[in-house]
Amino acid sequence: MTIFPAHDGTALHYEQLGDGAPLVAIPGGPGADARYLGALGGLDAHRRLIRFDPRGSGRSAEPADRASCAFGAQAKDLEALREHLGLDSFDLLGHSAGALTAQRYAAEFPHRVRSLVLVTPVGRGAREPDEAELAAIRAGRADRPWYPDAARAAALLAAGEGDPAELLARITPFFWGSWDERARAEAFDPASAPVAPWMRAAFYAGAGEAAPVGVPVLVVAGELDGMIGTAPARLAAAHHPRARLEVLPGVGHRPWVEKPAEFARLVGEFLG
Fold this sequence. Notes:
The protein is an alpha/beta fold. It contains ten helices and eight strands. Helix content is about 35%, strand content about 20%.
């Protein structure tokens, strides 16, 4: 376990896999343990993959000031990580909500980011799903045996009825391209679940769109992502002038799990 202090003394954790040019990876959630990222489909075969636990997440400490968990404020933690590692610059990957922190850091420290990878991002500076698109993606699974229960849970969640944690577990199949044994094992791994109930509100506080970045940007969306859809990825790709959008067919919110070889090849070629 590797711990270093943030600017305010909060103990932050990261771990490294593989060897090669550094690629820092930020998890989503917000508040999830970075271990759910695994090796991102095998990117550690040719990269020094640095999985970072944001403050209040995973094995990083909860800060004294919860307001410091806002995604914009967390850009300072990435800069502290860079200084700790002694890197002049690095490639940066953000998944889901973590893509907001990644974009903010790249906007504020453009000379430190060689390239940016946004995997199923939630948006540019806030959650930006297209509800009509999400409804269509979910309705496209109506022939699946799990669909009636997931649809009922989604309706209850939208109405503010029932236990949110239990309902979220029931709608999880919508977030995957194929709700098979591998997806179920990954989805319900305790390391995947944010544990701080206050984190979501703290993370999205002060949401605001990051400035466009001038570095090369790869935006990856999952065609069947019933958690956030493809609309936020399309917005992010249109926002950054050197961005390229790839929508992977047949996958959901974690494309490196469902199509690891294709994901690793796509990202590896971009970074190369």
